[in-house]
Amino acid sequence: MIELGIFALTWQSLVMLGIGLLLIYLGISKNMEPLLLGPIGFAVILANLPLTGITGESGLLYVIYQQLIATGIVPLIIFLGIGTMTDFSPLLANPKTFLLGAAAQLGIFLALGLAIILGFDLNSAASIGIIGGADGPTAIYAATRLVADRPEIIAAVTVSAYSYMALVPIIQPPIIKALTTKKQRKIRMGTMRKVSDIEKIVFPIGVTIIVGLIVPSALPLVGMLMLGNLFRTSGVMDRLSDTGGNALMDIATIMLGLGVGFLMVGNTFIQLETLKILLLGVFAFAAATAGGTLFGQIYYKLSNGKINPMIGAAGVSAVPMASRVVQKMGQEEDPGSHLLMHAMGPNVAGVIGSATAAGILIGLLG
């Protein structure tokens, strides 16, 4: 006799089915990270339908998670893809903006401290703090290294990281406005210098060597990012760059969505801890935005008012969403202002910064 799954549904399963539908709705209707929220939402539905066996040890979702997510393979492949799509020229044209990307990592460590105060152990707190980097693959990679035995933490961290990345245009503007004046937001910045092809090629190689020698635990993330960027900048590896940034990236994103959805099972995901992580994620991201903006104020003072402090808010890793927020806010104050490329400097620096911060925490605690 075939057992009907409807009789095995629990209230937790029903709630998670609703969450899965919500994620799909946000992805499709609101265009919020649709390439990830769509697969995650559908995988949540698959994982919470009872008696299917899809989450069992021989089930598809279980295998994907164990072999591709828990091992860190998929987040690293995604970082390679990000590297092929990232232009580091704005950072190379104005290297001092790297410090703005570093300052935005403040949110990671403030959230880590608050998580400890709220009762999380050190490894879980570090995983939660990485949400402040606003970099989904980094958050997943760090969590799988730090709390491999706590799948509910990994799931909550992942959902938080990607959800708040999608909410960048909503979360950042009020914080930026609170920490800058109308006069500062109107500041126009000059044309950036042209970066040579040699600089673009040397940069990923140099960063890889430096990070490998100083923060070895960050090398898997940074190294894959820089390898992808070398594909892009070399001028002779276009096929590899195209594959890494398109087909391979799409496959990895699908696998990531299915693997994360596997973790979001009602009886483990619906906990008070999950709500705490979601709230801490908002705090981490807000603190990161504030940290970058406040450091931007220092640059504003040191430059005698020539640097728009808003570009510091782009120091989070949400590329290019954070830069677009700064561009839009600048043009709202002055339609002739063009801050996008200036904001991209700290923005791409934030990608390196969050990966390095994650590597440091993994090295200390992993």
Please give a structural write-up.
- The mean pLDDT is 93.
- The longest helix is centred in the last third of the chain and has 31 residues, at 272-302.
- The protein is an all-alpha fold.
- Helix content is 72%, strand content 0%.
- The chain contains 20 helices and no strands.
- The protein has helices spanning 11-29, 34-48, 60-69, 73-85, 89-93, 98-103, 106-117, 122-129, 136-146, 151-166, 168-179, 182-185, 197-214, 219-234, 238-245, 247-263, 266-269, 272-302, 321-333, 340-365.
- The protein has one domain.
Topology:
Layout: H1 11-29, H2 34-48, H3 60-69, H4 73-85, H5 89-93, H6 98-103, H7 106-117, H8 122-129, H9 136-146, H10 151-166, H11 168-179, H12 182-185, H13 197-214, H14 219-234, H15 238-245, H16 247-263, H17 266-269, H18 272-302, H19 321-333, H20 340-365
Radius of gyration, whole Å: 21 Å
Q: How large a portion of the residues is in β-strands, by DSSP E? A: under 5%
- Number of E-type strands: 0
Number of domains: 1
Distance from N terminus to C terminus (CA atoms, Å) equals: 48 Å
Order of helices and strands: HHHHHHHHHHHHHHHHHHHH
Could you describe the largest sheet, including whether it forms a barrel?
A: none
What attributes does this structure have?
single chain; 366 residues; mainly alpha; 72% helix; globular
